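Anyone up for a design puzzle?
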């Protein structure tokens, strides 16, 4: 079944929260789709050890709503991923956005019909939308680069990407760990896992932080 709406917002990061709220405030019928199973965008996917803001928390705020701003207190100047993810839930629930979001729903096709002046949008779980506006806020760092390195397919042990780090975490205790990429993420990972990783030859892991920009 195709759902007819005014606007479709693709994604559930900070910009998506704002877009959905603002467009609803204008009286439009808006829906939002997100490939992940919950809100957070960057802070839903990037749950690697040491993940945290590298800018100060006071700038990551919904300043358009004084209540929202005043009712939340960050515990740190540079909060860690779990707290940021809680904040995204706090904003989502305070603005009552969840009812207008479909999760685990990745847009795979969007075709503009010039004659009708409308979009036909399809997602990977079979949802269909007929909409006048499509707001694609898919983020600048949300697509991890995974298939990058010669010999990767023959690597005997585990390879994980920081942008798709397992929710249950990894047991890195005493493991020999290789980290690829020493940008902000690489530095956060290395300094956090170094105390637990070891030089034992028992087994190894490779952590990459390469992203498609
Ligand atoms: C590790 C890391 C640390 C960062 N630290 C900071 C910081 O300290 N300060 C700062 O200002 N910025 C930081 N950034 C930048 C951060 O990306 C932005 O601040 C902000 O979170 C981007 O939000 P967004 O809503 O634009 O997109 P994102 O949060 O990237 O959300 C994009 C969402 O779109 C979804 N999506 C993509 N394609 C589709 C599709 N086809 N269908 C459905 N859903 C789709 C993805 O699943 C994802 O959830 C950091 C980024 C990373 C990766």
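Challenge accepted. My sequence:
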């Amino acid at each position: 079944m195709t759902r007819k709406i005014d606007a479709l917002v693709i994604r559930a990061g900070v910009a998506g929260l704002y877009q959905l709220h603002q467009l609803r405030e204008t009286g439009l019928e808006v829906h939002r789709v997100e490939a992940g199973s919950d809100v957070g965008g960057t802070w839903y996917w990037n749950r690697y050890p040491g993940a945290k803001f590298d800018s100060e928390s006071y700038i990551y705020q919904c300043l358009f709503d004084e209540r929202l701003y005043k009712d939340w207190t960050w515990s740190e100047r540079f909060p860690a991923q779990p707290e940021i993810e809680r904040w995204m839930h706090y904003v989502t629930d305070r603005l009552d956005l969840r009812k207008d979001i479909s999760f685990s729903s990745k847009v795979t096709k969007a075709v503009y019909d010039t004659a009708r002046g409308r979009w036909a949008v399809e997602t990977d779980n079979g949802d269909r939308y007929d909409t006048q506006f499509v707001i694609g806020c898919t983020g600048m760092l949300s697509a991890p680069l995974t298939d990058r390195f010669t010999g990767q397919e023959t690597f005997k042990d585990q390879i994980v990407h920081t942008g798709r780090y397992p929710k249950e975490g990894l047991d890195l205790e005493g493991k020999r760990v290789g980290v690829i990429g020493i940008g902000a993420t690489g530095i956060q990972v290395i300094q956090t896992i170094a105390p637990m990783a070891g030089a034992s030859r028992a087994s190894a892991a490779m952590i990459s932080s390469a992203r498609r920009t």
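A detail worth pointing out: Residues 152-208 form one domain.
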